[in-house]
Amino acid sequence: MDQPVFQTRQEQCPLCGSTALEEHCTIDRFAPEFKISRCKECHHQFINPTWHPDYLASLYQADYFRGRAEYSYHDERKNLHFEQIVWRARLKKIQTFIRHGNLLDIGCSFGGFLKSANRYFTTFGVEPSAYAAEHAQKESSSQIFSGYLEECPWPKHSMDVITAIEVAEHIPEPISFFSKIGTLLRPGGLVVIQTADFSGWQALREGCNYHYYLPGHLHYFNRENLAFLLRKYADIEYFYEFRGAEFGLLPKLRKARGSFSAFKDYLRWGKISAYHFKSQFMWKGRYLTSAMVLYGIKRNPA
Q1: Could you tell me which of 100, 226, 240 has the C-alpha nearest to residue 161?
Q2: For 45-85, how does the pLDDT look when each residue is reduced to its tens digit (9 = 90+)?
């Protein structure tokens, strides 16, 4: 018997519970094609019907992490020296909020960011892929949990910093995910979320052709409903929003150099720079691009 691909179609928005859903896109550049629903109330978008759990798990086999699948991850191990440039820049920014303590990286993959963070923090990682988690455990001195965040064993308020870089869009159940972040993060702690902003002009302009519509991306947030989730379920009180990236342009340019193989490749610096500066500007209340990083501070009761 063939493996089921989809679950039953959802009739309510997984964020706000509204039944006012509309068909937004059909993504047919992958096989099988999939459909995106959009909530008319909170404007959240999500794959609907979503993947069957067994099919979803099949997307994250070893070839995904090695960059050999149709839908693949960028294998950080191939260019560690240049990847570390961005990781160190991010850590420098994080340390303007929290200097030391326990840091949890959700979706830690092969553990490269955690290895960089070991210099300043006691590090922990969550990684659903057993293949990637095993490598992360060997390569870093971090405590790695192989599974989903909601299942991890660490106690309440045990984390000072929680990072989720290009992770939130992969999560099957956003409310339980952000609730667990709120449980683990101590009052006054910092959460860092990087994902796409679907209220940005880039996503709106490109429509169904926007590159962020991918098989493993189950949910598509905007800056308003992402802040709503963090505020309501993780008890985040203060937000700091960064566009493009929170660490500026230079680390991006230095990282990109690691993939250059010919002199003409340096022309890509122009595109990277143009995109970064474009990200800083708004028109009619919307940012020109959809690159978004949110830093949030958990409420510290008096």
Answers
A1: 100
A2: 999 999 999 988 888 776 666 655 555 566 787 788 899 99
Provide the pLDDT confidence category of residue 1 given band limits of 50, 70 and 90. Answer: very low
Q: Which two tokens stand for residue 36?
A: 């995106």
For residue range 141-180, list pLDDT tens digits in order.
Answer: 899 999 999 999 999 999 999 999 999 999 999 999 999 9
Closest listed residue to residue 105, CA positions, set 138, 59, 60, 136: 136
Here the tokens at position 142 are: 């971090």
| 250 vs 71 pLDDT, higher one | 250
Q: Which pLDDT value is given to residue 78?
A: 77
The sheet that has 291-298: what strands, in order across it? 143-146, 121-127, 101-106, 159-165, 185-196, 291-298, 236-243
List residues bridging with 294 in a β-sheet.
193, 241
- Three-point CA angle 155, 159, 165, nearest 5°: 120
Which of 51, 180, 175, 197 has its CA nearest to residue 126?
Answer: 180
Integer Cα distance of 221 and 199 in angstroms: 8
Euclidean distance between CA atoms 159 and 182, whole angstroms: 10
3-state secondary structure the chain: CCCCCECCCCCCCCCCCCCCEEEEEEECCCCCCEEEEEECCCCCEEECCCECHHHHHHCCCHHHHHCCCCCCCCCHHHHHHHHHHHHHHHHHHHCCCCCCEEEEEECCCCCHHHHHHCCCEEEEEEECCHHHHHHHHHHCCCEEEECCHHHCCCCCCCEEEEEEECCHHHCCCHHHHHHHHHHHEEEEEEEEEEEECCCCHHHHHHHHHCCCCCCCCCEECCHHHHHHHHHHHCCEEEEEEEECCCCCCHHHHHHHHHHCCCHHHHHHHHHHHHHHHHCCCEECCEECCCEEEEEEEECCCC
